[in-house]
């Protein structure tokens, strides 16, 4: 159960009584219960340190050797992408959602992630990263650029330079802070201003996930999120990128989003009118469609994340003619739903 006092840390949020009426709607939803009952959680150790455990959900056809891997934000666990797992595996994709072990350094994280891919016998992968997850995805692509392990990136509400949080000088002191102080830091970046019921449910679910993280897990993620580092785009210039962001308020400023566009001038852009910090939860249909559009350019190649049996010969012919051409990322939500039904 969510600790009610933590809601006090969310500025300009709805009154507690209003929130309580919405509490646990995602956690008791049929989709979430179906996910938890059908997709097993795996725990894998790849480092010499037995305390470093990767938790993951691996769903979809295991014959796929270039799946899409989902990386959560600071407050997230592997469960936060359950709607992506259900939808994408239903379309024939192999999807892996991760939860990080405790890593205090970006190079240490990249080394551990590389070992995990080796353990799973995955040569190259597509990465979807939300916020910190997107930053880690970029750093991993950069770190392995001489022997590429990342074929494409989908960056959702993400950033390329940790200095935007203005905590680089204090990042190395997070390990000293008690859990409640670390949660206060994270919750301070949650919703500001009015939000709709779906966003309320998403925030509540993320607060519940945040409560499940230990002090060391949270402190290490905040350290990775804030220690002085930035992405070197010239090292990943050959990686296909899609940027997903929202037009309403989120933890990232307009300037940070503009910087991402400058960093990846050739990236496809997928904009959502609303969605806040967690569009993969509260606007899952649109996010799932954008992921599908991004991955469609690899159909019929060795880097396809989908079961070939799920792709029609006509679509493969279209892909060959278009050579991975663009799809319109500016679709309205109702158009997204229509396109999903057509697929």
Topology:
Layout: H1 16-22, H2 30-38, E1 41-44, E2 54-59, E3 68-71, H3 82-90, E4 95-99, H4 106-119, E5 125-130, H5 132-143, E6 150-156, H6 179-187, H7 197-212, H8 215-226, E7 240-246, H9 254-263, E8 268-272, H10 279-282, H11 284-296, H12 313-322, H13 333-342
Parallel strand pairs: 3-4, 3-5, 5-6, 6-7, 7-8
Antiparallel strand pairs: 1-2, 2-4
Helix pairs in contact: 3-11, 4-5, 6-8
Summarize the structure.
The protein is of the alpha/beta class.
Please provide a written account of the structure.
- With 343 residues, this protein is of the alpha/beta class.
- 39% of the residues lie in helices and 13% in strands.
- The chain has 13 helices and eight strands.
- The protein has helices spanning 16-22, 30-38, 82-90, 106-119, 132-143, 179-187, 197-212, 215-226, 254-263, 279-282, 284-296, 313-322, 333-342, and strands at residues 41-44, 54-59, 68-71, 95-99, 125-130, 150-156, 240-246, 268-272.
- An eight-stranded mixed β-sheet has the order 1-2-4-3-5-6-7-8, sandwiched between helices.
- Helix 9 (254-263) links the parallel strand 7 (240-246) and strand 8 (268-272).
- Helix 3 (82-90) packs across helix 11, helix 4 packs across helix 5 and helix 6 (179-187) crosses helix 8 (215-226).
- The longest helix is centred in the middle third of the chain and has 16 residues, at 197-212.
- The chain is globular and about 55 Å long.
- The two termini are 38 Å apart.
- Mean pLDDT is 86; it is low at 1-23 and 324-343.
């Amino acid at each position: 159960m969510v600790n009610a006092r933590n809601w006090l840390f969310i500025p300009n949020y709805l009154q507690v009584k209003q929130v309580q009426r919405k509490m646990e709607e995602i956690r008791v939803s049929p989709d979430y219960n179906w996910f938890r009952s059908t997709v097993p959680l795996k725990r894998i150790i790849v480092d010499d340190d037995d305390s470093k455990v990767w938790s993951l959900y691996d769903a979809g056809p295991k014959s796929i050797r270039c799946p899409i891997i989902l990386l959560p934000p600071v407050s997230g666990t592997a469960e936060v992408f359950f709607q992506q797992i259900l939808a994408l595996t239903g379309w024939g994709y192999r999807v892996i959602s991760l939860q990080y072990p405790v890593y205090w350094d970006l190079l240490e994280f990249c080394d551990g992630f590389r070992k995990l891919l080796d353990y799973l016998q995955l040569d190259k992968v597509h990465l979807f990263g939300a916020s910190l997850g997107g930053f880690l995805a970029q750093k991993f692509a950069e770190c392995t650029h001489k022997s590429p392990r990342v074929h494409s990136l989908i960056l959702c509400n993400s950033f390329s330079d940790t200095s935007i949080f203005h905590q680089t000088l204090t990042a190395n002191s997070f390990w000293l802070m008690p859990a409640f102080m670390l949660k206060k830091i994270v919750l301070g970046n949650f919703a500001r201003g009015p939000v709709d019921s779906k966003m309320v449910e998403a925030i509540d679910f993320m607060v519940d996930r945040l409560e499940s993280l230990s002090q060391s897990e949270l402190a290490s993620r905040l350290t990775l999120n804030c220690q002085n580092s930035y992405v070197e785009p010239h090292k990943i210039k050959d990686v296909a990128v899609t940027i997903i962001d929202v037009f309403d308020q989120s933890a990232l400023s307009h300037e940070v989003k503009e910087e991402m566009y400058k960093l990846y001038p050739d990236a496809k852009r997928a904009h959502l009118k609303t969605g806040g910090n967690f569009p993969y939860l509260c606007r899952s249909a649109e996010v799932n469609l954008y992921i599908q559009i991004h991955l469609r350019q690899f159909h019929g190649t060795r880097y396809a994340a989908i079961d070939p049996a799920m792709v029609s010969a006509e679509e493969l012919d279209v892909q060959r003619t278009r050579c991975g051409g663009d799809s319109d990322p500016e679709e309205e939500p109702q158009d997204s739903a229509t396109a999903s039904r057509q697929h």
